[in-house]
Amino acid sequence: MAKLCYDYNLPIIPFGTGTGLEGGVTAKKGGVCFDLSKMDKVLAVHAEDFDVLVEPGVTRKALNEYLRDTGLWFPVDPGADASLCGMAATSASGTNAVRYGTMRENVLNLEVVLSDGRVIDTAGRGRRTKKTSAGYNLTNLFVGSEGTLGIITKATLKLYPIPEAMLSAVCHFPAEGPAVDTTVQILQCGIPVARIEFLDDVQMKICNKFSGLAYPQSPSLFLEFHGSPSSVEEQAKLAGEIVQTNSGSDFQWATKAEDRNRLWKARHDIFYACLAYRPGCRALITDVCVPISNLPEMIVKTKEDINTTNIPGPIVGHVGDGNFHTVLLTLTDEEFEQAKQLTDRMVERALSLSGTCTGEHGIGLGKRDWLVKEIGHDGIAVMKQLKSALDPRGIMNPGKIFSHI
């Protein structure tokens, strides 16, 4: 099919599950959509080597269901039940990235169909070593390429042992600053927290209403600790001491599996909760990422900026790795324009603080101009040369990442 499209100069748009947030599967120039969702087989599990080979339609939840009796799991969790190869294509991450890394750290090998129909294995056919010094790192070239270089048709991924014990907790703070300071200090103390999520006061109000929770409507942290029972207890104790020094509340614990699942389901349902909070709204979602030492300043200034408008704009983030999101809920065209200006200032602020315009959503259509400001014209020129080498006719997901290709 790719060879046919190449011969007739037809654009190719790879499609996984359609859960991306930056318009990555929009057919701006028409063409042929390659729906990979039915290629959904787990092809091989190497439990003793902690890796798995999957087809592109296998989703995160489906893989972990398949792995249940092995004692292993795949922890990268962007919230949506996205396809794993789609997650590789956007370099997705999520709530567990602070402990287990992003897709970029968890992909060992990819099978990719190039625009002219050639099939390559980025680390060599059948290779699945945890490290290699052999040649260029083609695997990470395609991770985050958003379908603009080729179609990912198989992925070899790292697996991890399911932790012996898991403990979740929630704590609350009088303001955004102390909550984010707590995050930075927990990481600086070397506490191997598995998840640490920030929700501002607006987001807590929305979560309470949508998910039937009864937490205080104040800036909060959702945390999770993984390990042996004794190590989890020690991690929680140390984190709790740091929370107390920053005027935080005592932990509210979720020790049972059903309580933990309810807590994290509320976190993952945030987008739907936001839409329900302002019926009929049009949501503008964006994300940025900064070094964690700059995170307190970044979040506080973004909150102040949102508060200058009448637009509800909850803030939520994977603050353990410096990444957070805003969900701006607009009802009118005027509000939507205001929201776009807010997101532009947010990205500008992130870049000024040594950050990136997107931590996990990708560039797609929405952040093409910001990529130039982040990488620079010479860096963009090299990217375009790579694109031209692998996709000389410019048919792979055209219009994404770059404005004029």
Written overview of the protein:
- This protein has 405 residues and is an alpha+beta fold.
- The protein has 15 helices and 16 strands.
- The strands form four sheets. A seven-stranded antiparallel beta sheet has the order 13-10-12-11-15-16-14, with helices on both faces. Strands 3-4-8-6-7 form a five-stranded antiparallel beta sheet. The chain has a two-stranded parallel sheet with strand order 1-2.
- A hairpin with a 5-residue loop joins strand 6 (107-113) and strand 7 (119-121).
- The protein is globular and about 65 Å long.
- The two termini are 22 Å apart.
Assembly type: single chain
- Which percent bin holds the helix content? 25-40%
Shape field: globular
Question: Cα-atom Rg, whole angstroms?
Answer: 21 Å
Highlighted features:
single chain, about 400 residues, alpha+beta
What would a concise description of this structure say?
With 405 residues, this protein is of the alpha+beta class. Helices cover 37% and strands 20% of the residues. Strands 13-10-12-11-15-16-14 form a seven-stranded antiparallel β-sheet, with helices on both faces. The protein has a five-stranded antiparallel β-sheet with strand order 3-4-8-6-7. A two-stranded parallel sheet has the order 1-2.
